[in-house]
Amino acid sequence: MTILTDIRTLEDIKLLVDTFYAKVQKDKFIGPIFNEKIGIRWPEHLEKMYRFWQTILLEVHTYSGSPFPPHKQLPVAKEHFDRWMEIFIETTDSLFIGPLAEEAKLRAKNMAEMFNYKIEYFRNAAGNLKS
Known about the structure:
The chain is 70% helix and 0% strand. It is built from five helices and no strands. The protein has helices at residues 10-26, 31-38, 42-58, 78-95, 99-130. The longest helix has 32 residues, at 99-130. It is globular. The model has no long low-confidence stretch (mean pLDDT 91). InterPro entries: Globin-like_sf, Globin/Proto, Hemoglobin_trunc. Keywords: Heme, Iron, Metal-binding, Transport.
């Protein structure tokens, strides 16, 4: 039996990100969306995710940028974000336990809700312009 510990290092973040996105890529529901958008740029995307989570969880400021714009035009709805969260929580809980693991799940939940809200907002605003 493996004893779970909290997220503490960049190596922990890499394990979380790599495990999570390996599951996402194979997921029948959200995998095709990610694989089509990212294509052959998975190593680049994973590096960016390492920096993003390192900045958020370990307060080592290696990420700069705005995470929302690349997601704005994705063909996703609430069900896609729900599935993303399901995989994220399952992955985090299988690898880690502790305050930073809980923080990761909370931050992911907040980000998924905000992205969903903003995508819907932009879609509705664009639809109103066409009417």
